Amino acid sequence: MKNIIDFINSVIKEMRIMTWPSKSEVWGSTKIVIGISLILVLYIFFSDQILNWMIRFFIN
Q1: Domain ranges of the chain
Q2: How confident is the model over 2-33, as pLDDT tens digits?
Q3: Could you report the per-residue pLDDT of 25-55, keeping only the tens digit for each?
């Protein structure tokens, strides 16, 4: 039981030491992740469409 309490106390100490990002930093990172995700989705979608077209073209 003492180990668990020591662990929780050390976690609390570390959480106080940490520097958390500001709201604007988090929002900026979120925009980057969403943007890259959309680019990746579009790339995969168009790659799939082109491959489907090529397969249909060469099979028929």
Answers
A1: 22-60
A2: 899 999 999 999 999 989 899 999 999 999 99
A3: 999 999 999 999 999 999 999 999 999 999 9
Backbone angles phi, psi at 18, to 5 degrees: -60, 150
DSSP states of 4-59: HHHHHHHHHHHHHH--PPPHHHHHHHHHHHHHHHHHHHHHHHHHHHHHHHHHHHHH
CA 59 to chain centre: 38
